[in-house]
Predict the structure.
Amino acid sequence: REDVMSNDLQPEQVILEGKLGSGQFGEVKKGVCHLVNKTVPVAVKTLKNNDPAGEKEILREATLMKRLDHQHIVRMIGVCKGESLMLVMELAELGPLKKYLEKHLEMKVWHQVEMMLQICDGMQYLESRDVVHRDLATRNVLLVTEHFAKISDFGMSRMVDSNSEYYHAHGPGRWPLMWYAPECLYYHKFDSKSDVWSFGVTLWEIMSFGARPYDRKRPQEILNFIESGNRLRKPKNCDDRLYNIMLSCWALEKGKRPTFREMKPTLDHLYKEFKITNM
Ligand code: ATP
């Protein structure tokens, strides 16, 4: 707690304006934050009715975000104890990638791959910092501009245990099952390789313009589907090489999945190729 509080902001510094969205413990509001020599637009996670469980969660999220410093990861500006506890972050004006995809069915493939590459870059950074995100999906990728994406929502994120090399969750909670690797669902074990599985689903969402994975299948049906060796189908008009990356992310055995570091050059190559031909 001490640690987080060194990023303390005074309530007068944070001016709240409209509502951006709602989360588990409260609302996310838009606003500005007055810093020493500048005023910056911000997104502020607020807590409703000073719920102590929510406070603990916000402090946990802040402690983790504070360790992170990367261009494709939403930066935390600080924590503010006003009427209730607030987590102040830089604003990503254009909002969630999922919504953007739904509205831009004309998006070029190079633009879609540009998003993938930036997400991969941010995820490689998390991988190198021993952080598992645990909620990677297009709803949690935010756009600063049409060509600049940032990974957000560290509410589920954890440090991996340096001994066991994974994070062991105590039990299933409100989990985004459709993005989770089998070992997460069966053994509650999370590491960067389980984020890689989610990244594959995120790529699928990007190529499917924000569609819902696995249609309306129920959780058990999805598990059986995966266990029998089935995978999400290749999105319409999706390049085989992109689909092959997705399939590699969905290897049952996590050791067979690529790392983010390994995927970056492949995505970079595809990006350049599609860009040159304006695909
Ligand atoms: P969930 O229950 O979905 O995990 P949460 O409590 O973790 O929600 P977020 O998903 O982080 O909250 O935020 C909710 C919404 O607020 C997002 O969908 C997004 O629209 C908006 N939002 C969050 N952070 C930002 C930001 N930095 N810039 C712009 N919008 C943001």
